[in-house]
Amino acid sequence: MIWSLLADLIVVIHFLYVLFTVLGEGLILWGGFLKWQWIRNRTFRILHLAAVLLVALEAMAGVLCPLTVWEYRLRGMAGQGAEQEVSFVARLIRRIIFYDFPEIFFIVLYTGFGILVIVTALLFPWKKKTAP
Predict the structure, then answer these.
(1) For the chain, which residues make up each domain, given as ranges?
(2) Measuring CA to CA, how many Å separate 117 from each of 13, 41, 76, 113?
């Protein structure tokens, strides 16, 4: 029981990671055009850039996301081999964040998104750290 709950928790964390990267970029773009100052927060922007580039580099290297690996291991420990054995919430979230497309699709998608985030950082740079 604990293993399946931990696997479900990993799925929720994975979903929040996806939301942070995708919605974060949308808000940065929107906020850049609307001149929102909070989108220039240095810590937020560096964390966002790092999160997106990590996914792009994993895709280019052919590495499976560690969150996915951990979830699969925990599901195995819980004896959950089939999708029907996964909780409703986990199935719902997995249908949102996982798709059955060729690997090249995701490499292009994640790399393109990483380039978009870099271009966004150049168009709407974060604030420089000021001296104390």
Answers:
(1) 2-123
(2) 21, 15, 35, 6
For every residue of 62-127, which 3-state class applies, written as one string?
A: CCCCHHHHHHHHHHHHCCCCCHHHCCHHHHHHHHHHCCCCCHHHHHHHHHHHHHHHHHHHHHCCCC
The amino acid occupying position 123 is L
C-alpha to C-alpha distance for 126 and 123, rounded to whole angstroms? 10
Closest CA to 11 of 108, 126, 93, 81: 93
pLDDT in tens, the chain (132 residues): 899 999 999 999 999 999 999 999 999 999 999 999 999 999 999 999 999 999 999 999 999 999 999 998 999 999 887 666 788 888 889 888 888 889 999 999 999 999 999 999 999 999 887 666
